[in-house]
């Protein structure tokens, strides 16, 4: 174990919806510069967990630590202020806005002061170009409408947006589920570059091959609980399947 | 107009480098979004050319063109407000009665001896208040905008009738008369007022964070919310803008007729929606300009003026304007 603090650590997170215990005391962590995968069957609690981390849900119990310090947030905006960004499957891109507008959505750079703040468009375009270049994402024109991008390009833009805000933790929900083989490879390369830049990446994926290829650490969830935390290099697809289905107990 | 052309850069942008000028023109013409922005300009030129050719001696006189500009000023201002609501995929059906309500409060203040600027202010505030109610009910209670503003159409007209006891009030003021009939360099003051509002609205829409957020909320409210934009605030704001502009436009209406009328001028509503559609604003929200609806307001006024000039009975004018609106909505398919 390193002495370096975890980028994010969840301690005994509990969340219930009515009488259903969606999370029954989940503890996990993610290190900076690593891809941490969260896998599990449908209804295992993966989505609920990331929604607690991203501030969409408020957990009933437990604590979340960022770089070793306990933080509290009640909505996505506050979570974001701690450097946690989420790329949802829907991507949250506005089709009719340009790429640079999407990259700066609700974080627009302005000049002037008070009620006379006006958009600093040239600055935003410049920074947007840098944001994409920084992660080696090639988009023909940042001025074109997002509507015109392919699925992989959209995913890349959404990921760059999440990574580009001085964030320390980027959560990705099934980032390649809707993509073809080539685009999937590109997005995986992108994730590797983000990792190389020291971001902690939380990856939700159903694709075991991808998880084994990309991740450093794997948390297996089942019925609202963490069954096992494994180093990716020490495990195999068969073991993961066994853990997910409950054929093998990780806690034994 | 420069800005409109800037907004329609989409078609050539992807393979931009290797396209020559002709190629760029062709790909622009083939892009439906290009037409949603420019159809109105082409149609406007066509209408002017058409009536200019048939009745040059009557239509193309300075006096007549002046008339068009004066008559288009109020619809233009209302259309600007309507543009904001439609950009968020909403609609404000209460604009005409909001204007009437503003006019009545203006009239009340005026007969009570308030100074003119206070009357203008009170009319605008009255309109703002109606817009605020619309916005709060639509955004907070999540009730259909169509129903809320349709109800408000009746509420505001009713309030105007109650407040005024159904009687018009004379508003005699030299400054207002000057505003109504004066001009500088052949541009009527009323049109100047409208144009200033158009320019400010354009600026707000394309050069402020608020403007970007209006597009975002209209284009995809869920994504906008996910990025931390308050959909409720934006929605309330656009109805406030629409109401405030309607209330302010009451001043222009009063200056033209010399009295505060308690009866709603319903053609203003149709006109504003028509201008917005014709001006290329997507009824699904998230796409549009301010100059488009502005040109459309000029076009609609030119059309009805031209028909009058060549002696077409007024009944046919309603028919023709309605047809133009439906036709333009069919031509400009910016729908998703």
Care to give the gist of this entry?
The complex is a heterodimer of chains A (252) and B (336). Helices cover 31% and strands 27% of the residues of chain A. Chain A has 252 residues and is α/β, with parallel strands linked by helices.
Give an overview in words.
- The complex is a heterodimer of chains A (252) and B (336).
- With 252 residues, chain A is of the alpha/beta class.
- Chain A has a domain at 8-96 and 166-245: Rossmann fold.
- Helices cover 31% and strands 27% of the residues of chain A.
- In chain A, the strands form 3 sheets. Chain A has a 6-stranded mixed sheet with strand order 6-9-10-3-11-12, with helices on both faces. A 4-stranded antiparallel sheet of chain A has the order 2-1-4-5, covered by helices on one side.
- In chain A, α5 (151-163) runs parallel beside α6.
- The mean pLDDT of chain A is 89.
- With 336 residues, chain B is mainly alpha-helical.
- Chain B has a single domain (2-7, 32-331), classed as Orthogonal Bundle (ABC transporter involved in vitamin B12 uptake, BtuC), CATH 1.10.3470.
- Chain B is built from 16 helices and 4 strands.
- Chain B has helices at residues 2-7, 21-29, 32-54, 56-59, 62-87, 95-111, 116-140, 145-164, 174-181, 189-207, 209-219, 221-226, 231-257, 267-278, 291-309, 314-331, and strands at residues 169-170, 183-184, 187-188, 259-260.
- Chain B has a two-stranded antiparallel ribbon.
- In chain B, a hairpin with a 2-residue loop joins β2 (183-184) and β3.
- In chain B, α14 (267-278) packs parallel to α16.
- Chain B is globular.
- The two termini of chain B are 25 Å apart.
- Mean pLDDT of chain B is 88; it is low at 1-18.
């Amino acid at each position: 174990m390193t002495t370096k603090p975890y980028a994010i650590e969840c301690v005994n997170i509990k969340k219930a919806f009515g009488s259903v215990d969606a999370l029954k005391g989940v503890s996990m962590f993610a290190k900076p510069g690593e891809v941490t995968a969260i896998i599990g069957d449908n209804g295992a609690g993966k989505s609920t967990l990331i929604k607690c981390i991203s501030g969409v849900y408020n957990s009933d119990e437990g604590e979340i630590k960022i770089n070793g310090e306990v933080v509290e947030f009640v909505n996505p905006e506050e979570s974001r202020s701690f450097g946690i960004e989420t790329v949802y499957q829907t991507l949250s891109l506005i089709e009719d806005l340009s790429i640079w507008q999407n990259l700066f959505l609700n974080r627009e750079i302005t000049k002037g002061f008070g009620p006379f703040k006006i958009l600093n468009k040239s600055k935003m375009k410049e920074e947007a170009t840098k944001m994409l270049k920084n992660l080696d994402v090639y988009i023909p024109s940042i001025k074109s409408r997002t509507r015109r991008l392919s699925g992989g390009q959209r995913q890349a833009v959404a990921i760059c947006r999440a990574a580009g805000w001085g964030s320390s933790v980027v959560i990705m929900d099934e980032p390649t589920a809707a993509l073809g083989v080539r685009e999937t490879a590109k997005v995986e390369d992108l994730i590797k570059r983000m990792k190389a830049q020291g971001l902690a990446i939380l990856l939700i994926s159903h694709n075991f091959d991808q998880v084994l290829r990309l991740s450093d650490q794997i948390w297996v969830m089942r019925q609202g609980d963490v069954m096992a935390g494994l180093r990716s290099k020490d495990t195999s697809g068969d073991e993961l399947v066994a853990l997910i289905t409950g054929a093998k107990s990780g806690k034994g | 107009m420069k800005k409109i052309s800037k907004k329609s850069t989409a078609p050539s942008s992807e393979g931009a480098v290797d396209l020559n000028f002709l190629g760029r023109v062709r790909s622009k013409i083939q892009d439906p979004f290009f037409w949603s922005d420019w159809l109105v300009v082409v149609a406007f030129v066509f209408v002017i050319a058409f009536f200019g050719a048939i009745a040059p001696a009557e239509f193309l006189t300075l006096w007549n063109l002046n008339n068009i500009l004066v008559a288009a000023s109020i619809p233009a201002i209302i259309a600007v407000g309507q543009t904001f609501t439609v950009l968020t995929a909403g609609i404000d059906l209460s604009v005409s009665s909001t204007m009437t309500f503003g006019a009545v409060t203006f009239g009340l203040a005026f007969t009570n001896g308030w100074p003119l600027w206070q009357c203008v202010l009170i009319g605008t505030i009255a309109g703002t208040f109606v817009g605020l109610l619309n916005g709060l009910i639509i955004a907070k209670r999540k009730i259909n905008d169509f129903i809320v503003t349709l109800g408000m159409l009746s509420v505001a007209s009713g309030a105007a009738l109650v407040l005024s006891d159904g009687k018009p009030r004379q508003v005699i003021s030299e400054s207002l008369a000057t505003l109504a009939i004066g001009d500088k360099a052949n541009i009527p003051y009323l049109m100047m007022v409208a144009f200033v509002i158009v320019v400010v609205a354009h600026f707000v829409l394309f050069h402020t964070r608020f403007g970007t957020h209006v597009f975002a909320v209209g284009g995809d409210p869920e994504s906008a919310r996910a990025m931390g934009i308050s959909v409720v605030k934006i929605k309330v704001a656009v109805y406030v803008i629409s109401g405030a502009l309607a209330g302010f436009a009451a001043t222009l209406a009063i200056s033209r007729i010399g009295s505060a009328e308690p009866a709603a001028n319903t053609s203003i509503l149709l006109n504003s929606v028509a201008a917005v559609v014709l001006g290329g604003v997507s009824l699904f929200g998230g796409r549009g300009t301010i100059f488009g609806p502005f040109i459309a307001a000029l076009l609609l006024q030119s059309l009805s003026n031209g028909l009058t000039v060549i002696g077409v009975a007024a009944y046919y004018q309603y028919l023709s304007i309605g047809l133009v609106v439906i036709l333009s909505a069919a031509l400009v398919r910016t729908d998703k």
